[in-house]
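Fig. S4 source data, part A: sequence.
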Amino acid sequence: MSVARAAFESTAIRVGSPEHKQLLAQFFLDSHRDYDPERIAWPVLGREELARLTALPFWQEAVATENVTSNTVTAAAALEADPQLRRAIALQGFEEQRHARLLAALAAHYHIPIEFPAAYVPRDLEDDFLFAGFGECFDSFFAFGLFALARAAGLFPAALVEVFEPVMEEEVRHILFFVNWVKVRRMDLPWWRRPAFRLRCGWIILKQVAARVRTARSLSGGTPASSENFTLTAHRDIGPPVTLHGLLGTCLQENDRRMAHYDARLLRPRLVPGIARVVHRLLPSRF
């Protein structure tokens, strides 16, 4: 990055201002990457690699999560009055649907038995979008670490791992967009409605935290508390054993590395990395 660009990007920008909205929409639209899941050249797997791939227990949960998220985000574009931000949310919905298509293509190619649920119909556009967005902030944070562990473990061909690199980059963009959109949404409200919106976000976050706490308690064995949290337990299935301390350290490193690629004037997710840093600092390395 040039000195001039770094200075430009470090210039403060008022959250919720027209400049912030324009920056947010433009960043998302400009960083979209075009690819077609149905045209991916899937690598040939050996017998052991194929058995390992098909035995992974989280494919059904991943499909269910993408079904809810893609339909929720697509519908949520109607929330936004700003035409550029509306385009960005609609594009995010398309990218989420493309994740589901990628899973479908993988399942079909490698004969992984998956049942695809009926399309999810959001009940409340804003609440569902907030719930999906905050949930994605948790899931993506752990997915960054899991992806790095899978790559380092070498249990699958590099060509197969790299198929999912665009998905990881899209998850970075999605949560970066979401945390900025939440601030924009709040600032667009009359001042007297902002506290209620903040409380609603806080309640949704608490529900997401509670779900992850239940899952974390199950890490020592047994069934995860919720299928929505499969990214928190998948490290047990994709490579050599790793402690929760080690997993959190990898997630933090990958989160920082991936976020650094984008405009410094955009707000970064702070809650999940903040919780992870505290737990990582307090948790003995043997756990």
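Fig. S4 source data, part B ends here. Residues 1-8, 220-227 have pLDDT under 50 and may be disordered.
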